[in-house]
Design a protein that fits this description.
Distance between the termini: 38 Å
Oligomer: single chain
Number of strands: 21
Low-confidence stretches: none
Strand order of the largest sheet: 14-13-10-11-12-15-20-17
Strand content: 25-35%
Radius of gyration: 21 Å
Number of helices: 13
CATH architecture of one domain: 3-Layer(aba) Sandwich
Structural class: alpha+beta
Mean pLDDT: 94
Amino acid sequence: MTSNKGLKFLIVSKWGDSLDLAYRLKNEQHEVLMFIQDLDSKEIGYGFVRKTNHWQKHTDWAEIIVFDYTGFGPQADELRKQGKLVFGGSTYTDQLELDRNFGHQELVKHKIKTIPAQEFKNFTEAIDYIKTHPDCYVIKPCGETQEYKQLLFVGKDDQGHDVIKMLEAYQKTWGANFGVFQIQRRFKGVEVAISGFFNGTKFLRPVNVSFEHKKLFPNELGVSTGEMGTSMFWSEKSPIFERTLLKMEQTLAEHKFIGHIDINTIVNGNGIFPLEFTSRFGYPQINIQLEGITENFGATLLKIAQGQDFKLKVKKGFQVGAYMVVPPFPFDDKKSFEIFSKDSVVLFKTPNREGIHPIQVKNINGQWLITGNSGIVLLIVGTGMTMKEAQKNMYNRISNIIINNSYYRNDIGNRWAEDSDKLLSWGLL
């Protein structure tokens, strides 16, 4: 068995999202080499970890290869066939996340409750469908298009009139080039994500229960951003996990998947209804999880990649994380980013860096500077035995940071008081 000290990690990243993970591994005294595929994100991590432009040349050097995003499934499968220790990625799990229709079919196959959804390739058919089946709907882009979070639209009208208007607007803007999308019934309830680490055979315990905050402004107002922050806790026994991800265990093992997988759900008094898979690290989910995992994470990744069965060592209580962002986030505007944000400094009032997770930054002579192109700078995490204690810890840490033109949500975790009551009443907590 390989020693837990001085492990060699090759991290293959699509957008540079795993910088914080790479930095954690480096600080644990492991050797880290990081590749970033996206050209506009190449500067991310400079001065934090060692970088490469050709990850394939280093697979023999690496003891563990980590894929941080979907799209590398075939490469991950092939490397596993060669006997390499690989965390993340498989052709099957890529398809689970990227092909919403396939993901839906797999849920049905595994006898997991689903929300009715229809897949479309053109707007006219989708509009006609809603007119003949009036209801409240959500527009959900599929495949590569789903990366554009601003295209997601959550309807509020019970007859679907607002969704029809949005589809008509998309038709004028996009024509026939929008790609594949779903029209999904909108179910009301509490949105909960369940995730776990899978060792090739089974899920490790405890699992992670998280609550995403997706809108730009407090109280879930404004545009959808993907995420502005997340609250979470770890659970040894979760009814939501048992009725969703656990049912996928055998199939994941058959496809030789090793990694992290998440399923987002809506739960209410009528049951648990999955929305979508995230078959990789979630962001900022993994950053917040790292604050809760108390053991050497490099050693943890090794044991998972080796297929070992063990119990994760985690903090009790809660973890809460919030993004600190700058213009043009959440929009894609390179000119605005270059004017207002690129190479801006990140200052700390005190030397304390606890709970500070670098996202799209570089380190020049000890000074952190904003880079990348999204405007996501840092993820700040607080922990505590209660949600309020974790929140207070996080916002105290944010107050120690100065970033020009930065903004963040000041209500991450506030929903817990109401959500926890509902989950308890439904027997899901």
